[in-house]
Amino acid sequence: MSLQNSRLWLGYDPCITDTETGRQVKLCGRGVERLGDVVIKPVEATTFTLIRPIFMAYGLKGRGTRIWLVKGPDNRYYILKDCWLPTSWANDVTIHHLLQDKSREDPLFALEVRSSDDEAVFGEKDEYHIFDNPLFDEPVFSTTALRGIPTLVCWDEVHRPDARGTLVPETTLMLLGYPPSPLFSTDVRPEDRQHLRAAFAECGISIAWFSCAREFFNAMMGAFVGHFNGYVRRKVLQCDISDTNVWMRIPKPEPEFIVPDWPKEKGPGWYPKRSGLLGDWGYGEDFDSNTFAQRDNSCVITGTYPFQATQLMAWEAGLGWAGPFTGHSIQHDLEAFVWLMWVLCVNLDGPFNTRRFECGDFEKATRRSTPTKRIKLEDLKKQAASNSRKNRGLDGAEKTSVTPLSPTVSASTFTTGGRTLPTVKPPNWALPGLYPGSAGGVAQSKSALMGKGIQFISHLSPYFSQHPSVEEGFQDLIALFDWKEERPPGGGRRISVAPAPSKYRTVIDIIKQMRDGIKPELDGPPSKEEIERARKEISALLDKGHLETPVLGSQAGPSQSHSQSKKRSRNSDN
After folding, report:
1. pLDDT per residue as tens digits for the range 506-553
2. Which of 279, 333, 336, 338 is CA-nearest to residue 110?
3. Quick one: which of 239, 346, 248, 335 has its CA closest to 285?
4. Measured distance CA(301)–CA(303) in Å, rounded
5. What is the Cβ-side half-sphere exposure of residue 407, based on CA atoms within 13 angstroms?
6. Residue burial 252-287, b: 16+ Cβ < 10 Å; e: rest
7. pTM above 0.90?
8. 32 φ, ψ to 5°?
9. 107: buried, middle or exposed (CB in 10 Å: 19+, 13-18, 0-12)?
10. Which of 122, 148, 309, 422 could form a disulfide with 411 if both were Cys (CB 3.0 to 4.6 A apart)?
């Protein structure tokens, strides 16, 4: 057996080679099929040099995702995503192909969420100054690129020789030795996954590594523009808003870019501005009328727990007040942005991933409940049949004691371990650690929070609550998505009434007011000690090859070694 064949037999990747300049991976430019049997024609073969790993998924479940910083033949840095994706539904590559297809632009699409002057804010004019004067150079890689969305550069299906020596796509069923024929029932045969690599032009770091509150809200606005561009301009709904999918753009993942210095010569109104990106579109849905019917409609609920919209969680739990199931909509994603900002502003108490809580601060069960999901409609119907009490809204509410707050009195605190914590603690699902409760409990908890604006903002960390514009903005945001209880005109029992649809412009205007209302003197540069601490922490994470630090991970803080699992259904995907 030759050396090359023996390495293949041992499982070595045939596309990765060792050279004098380092370990390299070749993306051979093979086509990838998408819905409708249309073949995406990739660019010519491209060779990248592996620099360092920046994310490694551990465990036997999920996508087996690995993310690398790589250098291309043009000496530019790129992000290489290596993962195993289900063959039964659209993946990152097919979705990004849609996102970079200019022919999908339709001025008559999504009129319900558009405004007459959107172009001034979401277009090249950038009247809200979201993308201008960035801290680092942010070149545009392609004319097909959209602001706020990573740009797909090239991709490849990983191939491997079969028993006859013929190169075939590397799939899990092939590696397990299953024959390529329906000899096994789909109930006993594992889900088939295909090995895929994709290179993206932009590097990013989690939004939790913001350097000041103004940068936080500005980056969130950048990601929001990305969502607008994806849905309004390309008819793709992202469907998975979460803290690990909203990033700030940097040249490459190094401490000086993740934890930047503040130049002394800059005026008091200046702050480091790293533009926001909305990434990980692998759960995105194509809403084009020509392909909508081809979607896998058996997967009906998607999102990351606990950032999901209230109605989605109520549907999963079978709560009758949520109304009949109608599918994931743009309003659900807009609401998810609000929950994402709120959870981050509750748990982060300073720049550079400064955590407010630790897992041991409050009593919390340790049973694992994983957050990101794709729930099948048939499973939803079975569950709904046994949820009669929940349908009446009698069960499922999270049992937490809440002390009423007056409009002028903030939550009282207590001190432990040298840190100050609130007596009125946030709900368990919004705290670090593994949450054992049900989707119904969270839906009821969220609904109650939205109906009590003062209680909602009382949970914000001192770092964010010191800014009146932030508190006022959150009250305005939750008012957009609050389900009201009203009595029908003819009398009878009170019923839950869904909020009126919100527009992109309405939401981003509120976030802009939150950003612009922050006084620079209260949002100045981090101390030298904070910068040194943060750079030490990020250097340790870089050494581990794992930069992802979910804000609600099983261990809080940037040095966490295990993050909360991200899936809740049998279709789990990391």
Report:
1. 999 999 999 999 999 999 999 999 999 999 999 999 999 999 888 887
2. 333
3. 239
4. 7
5. 3
6. bbbbebbbbebeeeeeeeebbbbbbbbbbbbbbbbb
7. no
8. -125, 125
9. exposed
10. 422
